[in-house]
Write a structure and sequence with these properties.
Blueprint lengths: L2 H16 L21 E3 L5 E4 L6 E2 L3 E7 L6 E8 L4 E6 L8 E3 L4 E7 L9 E12 L3 E4 L3 E7 L3 E9 L2 H13 L12 E9 L6 H12 L6 E9 L2 E8 L5 H16 L7 E4 L1
Parallel strand pairs: 3-11, 15-16
Antiparallel strand pairs: 1-2, 2-4, 4-8, 5-6, 5-9, 7-8, 9-10, 9-11, 12-13, 14-15
Helix pairs in contact: 2-4, 3-4
Length: 277
């Protein structure tokens, strides 16, 4: 097991311990992956492969792809989407996840990437770059051959609305008081929340809530990267799942950000309650 995996497992314990911090509001869908080698695009050496149909395909938000990773070693995969203007639209890494989204078979494993593209594209074409790497204590991180895939990009946009505190300092003081005081009490800060508009790459109706939650996370980032991994509706209840890294003091961040996500999603018609799974 690599040093980084051990560190992530330590973080996972921290996050699981703080999972209940995301209080619930009061009551009132699959990427295609590579199949046969002839139908795949692969990096030199074949460590990474994706479906050949991904080449020149139209990428919208969220980015959803399946990457086959063929190696007996512990491989980290970094990804980036750039438009033709040289603008990085989104980047990520399997290292950022406490619970990396892999599925495993006897011969290989598949990385399931799902990431919201909040930055609008300035061009209709771009490049998806996948970079595998290995790590060991003696030599550190070593990048392996990249897989670069030309893609088309959706240049249309969507306007989202999120809620943020009018006075961030006062809000953080209320968060600290809540965590350090009666922790079991429902967090109901007095700091007003104000709507903020966010222009993002075109989002399908079914992904509006997930993108909104991701926009809140990016507006108030923590010390480790948090991701929205799934949002689903069950009646009037919105279920949201986060992949959340941990650090000393993560409980304060969790209470602050979950409240803002909760209130932002309750603005959607038909949502009466938000539950963090």
């Amino acid at each position: 097991m690599s040093l980084r995996k051990s560190t992530l497992q330590t973080f996972l314990v921290t996050v699981l311990a703080s999972a209940s911090v995301c209080q619930q509001s009061p009551k009132p869908a699959a990427a295609s992956g590579p199949t046969k080698a002839a139908d795949s695009l692969c990096s030199a050496g074949g460590i990474l492969c994706v479906a050949k149909s991904l080449e020149h395909s139209l990428i919208s938000s969220p980015l959803q792809i399946a990457v086959q990773v063929s190696s007996s070693e512990d491989i980290q995969v970094d990804w980036e989407v750039d438009d033709a203007a040289g603008q990085a639209l989104v980047s990520g890494s399997s290292y950022d996840y406490v619970d990396p989204p892999f599925t495993t078979t006897s011969s290989s494993k598949t990385l399931h990437i799902k990431q919201y593209l909040l930055k609008p594209s300035k061009s209709a074409v771009g490049m998806l770059v996948l970079t595998p790497s290995r790590f060991d204590v003696s030599s550190g991180k070593t990048d392996l051959p990249k897989l670069e895939i030309p893609i088309r990009l959706n240049i249309a946009t969507t306007k989202l609305t999120i809620l943020l505190p009018a006075d961030p300092d006062k809000y953080q003081a209320e968060v600290a008081s809540s965590v350090e005081g009666d922790f079991s009490a429902r967090f109901e800060p007095k700091t007003p929340l104000v709507p903020q508009s966010v222009i993002v790459m075109k989002v399908a109706r079914g992904d509006l809530m997930g993108t909104t939650a991701e926009a809140v996370l990016q507006a108030m980032p923590g010390q480790a990267t948090w991701h929205v991994t799934n949002v689903r509706m069950d009646g009037g209840v919105a279920h949201i799942k986060l992949d959340a890294g941990g650090w000393a003091g993560v409980t304060y961040y969790s209470r602050a950000i979950c409240f803002l996500i909760d209130k932002s999603l309750l603005r959607f018609r038909g949502v009466a309650q938000v539950i963090f799974d």
